[in-house]
Amino acid sequence: MNAPFFVLTSDIDWASDACIADMAETVAGYDVRPVFMATGESAVLRRLHKEGRIELGIHPNFLAGSSHGATEKAVIEHMMSLYPDATTYRTHSFVENSHITLALRARGFTYDSNLGLHLQRNLQPLRHWSGLTRFPVFWEDDVYWRHNKGVYDLDAIWDDFMSPGLKVLSVHPVNFALNIPDAEGYAAIRSRIPSLTAEDIAKLRFKGPGTRDFVLKLVERLREQKIRVHTLAELYRDWNPWTASKPAGSGGRGEKISEADYQSYRGADATQRQQQLKAIFERRDATDRYATSRDYNMRELEIQGIGQGLPQGDILDLGCGNGYTLIALSKTHPGRRMVGVDYSENLIKGAKLLAEKEGATQPIEWVCADAITYVKNLPDKSVDGVITERFLINMPDDGVQRAIIRDIHRVLRPGGRLMMCEGSMEGFRGLNDLRVAVGLDPILERSADNPAAIRFEDKEIERFVTEEAGFRLLGKFGMSLYFTISRVLNPLLVAPQQPKFDAPINDLAGFVQSKQALDPGIGSSVVWLLERV
Q1: Which terminal residue of the chain, N or C, has fewer Cβ atoms less than 10 Å from its own Cβ?
Q2: How far apart are the C-alpha atoms of 346 and 290, rounded to whole Å?
Q3: DSSP state, 82?
Q4: What is the pTM (predicted TM-score) of this model?
Q5: Coil vs helix vs strand at 416
Q6: Could you tell me if 270 and 214 lie in one domain?
Q7: Does 262 lie in the same domain as 123?
Q8: pLDDT in tens, 179-233
């Protein structure tokens, strides 16, 4: 986590419904949805949960003499009978042992906030041995009293609150409602806590600095600085390194290939591999711009690099996917006849819909056909420009790759250009060398997430295209700055979380790279600009 992530939680203990309502309604005015850990029956909690205004957890009491039950099992059964829809928990006094944890896990809980680590910076979600994800408490009101009796200076600890990591706050409703400043103030009112009314709260609320004042100053400042307060459920879903879901709206590009499918691909022959890849593309959301690449910033930079060498005349995109590259280029490079070819019916249907949706500025012809066969059957010297964008990298072997390059040369007119956006081993190794140097694991050359990655050895492919295939190398574009930030700096900042393609730092990296020279060397995505001699 490279920023503070705030959550407001509350252990109800035995606070009255008036105290609960006071806290819930007050923080709602600051756009805060709190997490209430229920201790006993509460009509207000049930109403707030039904209205979707809170996240609901339980606060079971496993101490001796507990009114919740005489055994651990009895305590859990009692709490679950009251609140069967609870999604999380924190035990009273943080009581815990292996039996309790496993019993709660067996009841379906997947995350908790059952550890106090007061004002510790860089807190991360913890992976408990039971399988639970744990979100430690950063600040608790009564713990703060012990260390800072009567002193409520937010500025003095503001840097702690703004440090990276989890910032789970634990605030008791009675301490909030009555603005209790210290343990003595709590002890003086303790016997009345379960029966306090709204009128009692108005009369008894402490007039000096206290818990309520401190919490409201904090959430007000967070709102001023546009820092959102989350729920534990949101953290578990979106920022948990073990269960984080794919980005919203990512469509097919969020899909990962199973290990079984990957192993099947590795053992298949050339024809079977192409069929397996086709089956993957048929499942994609073809109306998503980035259906064929999860890294949308990289995709935009690839299009920028391709556009730098695009000639006038007829442009052919082999393996065009859902056509987004041609659609984007039609807006920046008008006056060209464009044809996109792909063997996936799903992607070609998506290309037609996407062209209309995106407002392609000129007609584009979409052809559903095997691109290898299509180019093989074209007449000699019949097109002015050919695009391959991660098309050759998906071929079953380097022999097929080179045969396609020869066919492309044949169909290009003299002076025609091939914009070959494919995988560079030189850039791939350069990226991994940098990752290893800073303590990151190297990226696997092939994996279940990228099974068909047959990258080019740069010197060898450049020798082949110039000495054997009949091309002149006009330029070579890469994204070294973008890959350095997105694949090295971003992982370092968010560790131990897994970096995400839609991280804001990646968006900034893509923007900055788009304003600079596209230099190769770091990162495997490279555009070779080739001209038929």
Answers
A1: C
A2: 14
A3: H
A4: 0.55
A5: strand
A6: no
A7: no
A8: 999 999 999 999 999 999 999 999 999 999 999 999 999 999 999 998 999 999 9
